[in-house]
Design a protein that fits this description.
By secondary structure, the protein is of the alpha+beta class. It has one domain: Ribosomal protein L7/L12, C-terminal domain/Adaptor protein ClpS (Ribosomal Protein L30, Chain: A), CATH 3.30.1390. About 50% of the residues lie in helices and about 20% in strands. Helix 2 packs across helix 3.
Length: about 100
């Protein structure tokens, strides 16, 4: 005996922006703690290249110092690679996840 169970299908409506965001795999740029960069240099780089305010950049510097790492930017792999290279040229320890 075969029992037929009714199945409900809910249609989900997405905005164009949500659809496009789903098509791009997001990556994160991670700033790591190291023994050679000063708080001032990290803050300067966060403000200059990532457009953070001084207060935001200070919070990032403290988080990296206390926790060992901090995500500082999110976007496509290509975008994160561009910023990774820039920050590495400034001597910061960064990676893309």
């Amino acid at each position: 005996m075969l029992i037929h169970m009714p199945t409900e299908v809910q249609e989900q409506t997405l905005t164009f922006e949500e659809l496009m965001a789903g098509l791009k795999e997001m990556h994160r740029l991670i700033l790591w703690n190291d023994d050679h960069n000063t708080f001032e240099h990290v803050i300067h780089c966060m403000m200059k290249y990532l457009d953070y305010t001084e207060g935001q950049a200070e919070k990032i510097a403290w988080k990296v110092h206390n926790e060992g790492k901090c995500p500082v930017l999110e976007g496509s792999f290509t975008e994160m690679e561009v910023y990774r290279k820039i920050l590495q040229q400034e001597g910061l320890t960064v990676s893309v996840e």
